[in-house]
Amino acid sequence: RSSRELWTILLGRSALREPAQIAAELNKHWQRLLEGLSYYKPPSTTSAEKIKADKDVSAPLKELGLRVSKFLGLDEEQCVQLLECYLQEDYRGTRDSLKVRSSHLCSICSTSVP
């Protein structure tokens, strides 16, 4: 199974409905799930500075990535990578709806971070 399929199972959105089937799949792939979660690092000044200096990352993406990093307590570079991947692979809206959603997300991240 792909990592995406495993996360779909974890979210309860797969065709698997029987608890025994779900448990069997998760037990079979527990090591990959653990490694996937262990991949993410905590935020760091070095990572934040790299994002701020990166000319290939747009200003709005930098801002959103840095806010998401603070909100989730994850590495800044990894947050920008996650956002880029989401936009390339999964986002299905328009540019205008993206502006509204990212603005809303920025406001949530700003109010939730000390």
UniProtKB/TrEMBL annotation:
GO terms for molecular function: structural constituent of nuclear pore. InterPro entries: Nup188. GO terms for biological process: protein import into nucleus; RNA export from nucleus. One of its GO terms (cellular component) is nuclear pore inner ring. It comes from the Eukaryota. Coiled coil: none annotated. Transmembrane segments: none annotated. This is NU188 protein. It comes from Bubo bubo (Eurasian eagle-owl).
